[in-house]
UniProtKB/TrEMBL annotation:
Name of the protein described by the UniProt record: Tetratricopeptide repeat protein
Signal peptide: 1-24
Region feature (Disordered): 149-287
Keywords attached to this entry: Signal, TPR repeat
Chain intervals with Low complexity compositional bias: 243-252
Cited PROSITE patterns: TPR, TPR_REGION
Originating organism: Leeuwenhoekiella polynyae
Length: 287
């Protein structure tokens, strides 16, 4: 009997040892992921130094090591965007959105995707990209500002408007119901330029200009901007709208945003009326 007790004790110790080994192995970080993060850090340094070819090479190595690395794909998109290779940038932003694990990551990828479409004058797709960005962060007024510009350009070029706009506003109302009515302060310091997603923890300021931008700044492997720049570093370029009649004055932008909000209020009134009648109204957007 004592012999069997000893056997049971030995077996228990053996199984505990096996569990400990398996747990330790599961906790060990994947070397490929660590290597990918190192490549991203190198690429970010190259980017800040305007070594764009070297940055692209390191970002590619990071993606090869870890295809799920959102930061590598997003920053490679920024690298292309900075060099006005908008088509390549779009592909990387889409890839970043596909592997993104958080709504914040998705929002940034779709926001800059919209900027790239805007640069190529594909305003319809820019509108859709900005809407996708707002679905992931309905509170971002910069994205809403860019959406208004893209819609305006789409209307000028014969697209959008009419019933399509009303349907979009109804959809936007559902998507944006988390917004506070009082946080829609218009940013009137811009002259019709689409703004870039503000994903940085630290804001770099251009001389005499405090507009925030994103597409030209890489993130480090932890998701924050790798701020290695010196005081003399150039501020990254803003996406530019078409010159001339394509630009809106601050007052025009303000009027456009107010008109959109009025339409949203009308939709909300209709929805409230339906609730009074007992009809079920779906207000939550399916993701």
């Amino acid at each position: 009997m004592k012999y069997f007790k000893n056997i049971h004790t030995l077996l228990a110790i053996f199984f505990m040892f096996l569990v400990g080994v398996v747990f330790a192995q599961s906790e060990k970080p994947d070397p490929a992921i660590i290597e990918a993060q190192d490549y991203v850090a190198e690429a970010n340094d190259d980017f800040v130094s305007n070594e764009f070819a070297a940055a692209e090479s390191s970002y590619r190595k990071a993606v090869a090591k870890d295809p799920a690395n959102t930061t590598a794909k997003y920053n490679m998109g920024n690298n292309y965007y900075r060099n006005k290779k908008y088509g390549e940038g779009m592909n990387r932003y889409l890839q970043a959105a596909e592997v993104a694990q958080t709504k914040t990551e998705k929002h940034k990828a779709f926001h800059n995707l919209g900027n790239a479409f805007y640069q190529q004058k594909d305003y319809k797709k820019a509108v859709e990209a900005y809407k996708n960005a707002l679905r992931n962060d309905p509170t971002d007024e910069e994205t809403r500002y860019n959406l208004a510009l893209a819609k305006k350009e789409e209307e000028k070029n014969g697209g959008g408007g009419g019933d399509d706009d009303k349907e979009d506003q109804n959809q936007d109302q559902n998507e944006d119901k988390k917004d506070q009515e009082g946080d829609g302060d218009d940013k009137e310091s811009d002259d019709g330029k689409p703004k870039d997603s503000d994903d940085q923890g630290d804001e770099k300021k251009d001389q005499g200009d405090d507009k925030k931008d994103d597409e030209g700044k890489p993130e480090d492997k932890d998701g924050d901007q790798k701020d290695k720049g010196k005081d003399g570093d150039k501020e990254k370029e803003q996406p530019q709208p078409q010159p001339g009649q394509g630009q809106l004055s601050p007052q025009q932008v303000k009027s456009l945003l107010e008109a959109m909000k009025n339409e949203e209020n009308k939709v909300q009134d209709k929805m409230n009326a339906q609730k009074v009648k007992g009809a079920k109204v779906k207000t939550d957007k399916d993701w």
